[in-house]
Amino acid sequence: MTSFEIEELHFDARSLKTWALLDDRHRNWPVVYTLDGPGEVYVGESLNAAGRFKQHLETGKKRLRRARVVVDPTFNKSVCLDLESYLIRLFAGDGRYEVLNRNDGITDAEYYGREDYQKAFERIFEELRERGAFSRSVREIENTDLFKLSPFKALTPDQAIAVEDILSGLFDDLEKKVSSRLVVQGDPGTGKTVVAIYLIKLLTDIQNADLTDPVGEDSILSEFFVEGYPQLLAGLRIGLVVPQQSLRKSIQNVFRKTPGLKPSMVMTPFEAAQADTRFDLLVVDEAHRLNQRASLASGAVNALFPKINVRLFGADDRGLTQLDWINAVSRHQIYLVDAAQAVRPADVPRQVLEDLTATAKAARRHYPLTTQMRVKAGSDYVGYIRGVLDGAPVEPQAFPGYDLRLFDDLGEMLAVVAEKETEVGLARTVAGYAWPWRSRHDPTAFDITIDECHLRWNSTDVDWVNSPTSTEEVGSIHTIQGYDLNVAAVIIGPDLRFDTATRRIRFDRSNYHDKKGMQNNPSRGITYTDEDVLQFVKNIYAVLLTRGILGTYVYVCDPPLREHLRRYLRP
């Protein structure tokens, strides 16, 4: 059992000189510390805290006013690196302070006794919270978008390899003055959005690096914070393109509260394509949600397609997509892709994404992410769910420790969801678009009626997960793609049915109410059959069924489909 102390001192030369002599461990022992001033905090670790503080006072940290030092006789270097990462992430998620740390890169490394130490970390957090360092509990912080979408992450091994390789390749290309196109590919929950945000923050940190402020030697990315790399990034214009409105707004909020980042760096494909000057690098998150020429969300948006095509290419070629726009307005591109998450006919065709991926593989610029970071059911869960929906020959599988349940009574499922919201937070109900959105025009109307349950769709399109009424509403695919939930309760509507004669899942067009989700594309001569739309709808449910970190609850409207899925959906 650890026995820590938290020592406090004014962060100035006089106080430091006195403090350094009080205990030998202040000069020769692994410790973790925080430095804070009005609205700012910095977290560090060192074997020589007194010496490190002196360095900070001689560089950009001298404006900070208070130091807190966590001293423990059992600490070693690995523990301190882990605690440092833990506190950085919680400070970023709490939002009380701007976190001044750079994205040097710390992997999520194991070490002896880690489980016991992490229990001690919780006690350290609580004492820091009592002293005013944090404004919220760990659970409250971990449920925020600021935490989930923060660039301050301990990378998984495959994320760390991808980031390091991407940086090395990008710097080589910048030095040779050649263009590049990279693809990061992964299933839901493998951290594609984390990599996108992390890369943007890391590049801006290198771009603005104060090379007199040393980077910890244990940083996996310290090699890029040396002479030469900031110069290669000097003046580079970098942007992050996020097609989905809700996720984009959440990321903009994170960028607003992160030093070195600006909300204006996060944009729509239309904004990127209409920018006044060319980008040096565009990172595209959820690239499978880029659009092709189709009947888009509004007439005004649809009219922009030919206008942008003419502006960029001199003619309106109806075969051009937003992916072509990104390539045209930037010298370097990083695409984060999962083709199986395309949910509308207007999304970039799967063949386009497959060609993009094949080209990246041939150029050795393809980076797969495989570690499941979201669902605590293990890495097999996503493939299992997709296989069940696709009708593949899947053996029924249990996921011990993961709360996977099929309900026969919707009211019972909703009651359990309410209990989970109280217990762990971020428990939400979501559904396929199998009911019309009446409450959009009449807030008193109910959209979904099943037995004695009367429900409404999401009352906001932006950041619905965190909106005040979200626990009483049902979210659609457009509110939840790209987000994590602790518990996802999924209503599979009558848009999916099970044909007992063919033993296949089929699409029921009469019960599908996303007009844009099945609309033909006459401008390109494309007609979408029920089989075509079925794939989009199955993709939607695969996304909904892979949102829950701790559990997934399912209610199925079609009785034959419910019986078919019963053998597959169990703890």
What would you note in describing this structure?
There is one protein chain. The chain has about 575 residues and is an alpha/beta fold. The chain is built from 19 helices and 22 strands. The strands form 5 sheets. A 7-stranded mixed sheet has the order 14-22-19-15-18-17-16. Strands 10-9-11-12-8-13 form a 6-stranded parallel sheet, sandwiched between helices. Helix 1 packs antiparallel against helix 2 (about 50-60), helix 3 crosses helix 4 (about 115-130) and helix 15 packs antiparallel against helix 18 (about 530-545). The longest helix has 20 residues, at about 155-175. The model has no long low-confidence stretch (mean pLDDT about 90).
Helix content: 25-40%
What oligomeric state do the depicted chains represent? single chain
Instruction: State the CATH class of the largest domain.
Output: Alpha Beta
CATH architecture of the largest domain: 3-Layer(aba) Sandwich
Which fold name corresponds to the CATH topology of the largest domain?
Rossmann fold
**Whole-number average pLDDT?**
91
* Approximate shape: globular
Number of domains: 3
> From the alpha-carbon coordinates, what is the Rg to the nearest angstrom?
25 Å
Q: Count the DSSP helices.
A: 19
The count of β-strands is 22
Q: What structural class is derived from the secondary structure elements?
A: alpha/beta
Enumerate the strands of the largest sheet in spatial order, edge to edge or round the barrel.
14-22-19-15-18-17-16
N- to C-terminal distance = 34 Å
Sheet-strand content, in percent, reads 15-25%
CATH superfamily of the largest domain: P-loop containing nucleotide triphosphate hydrolases
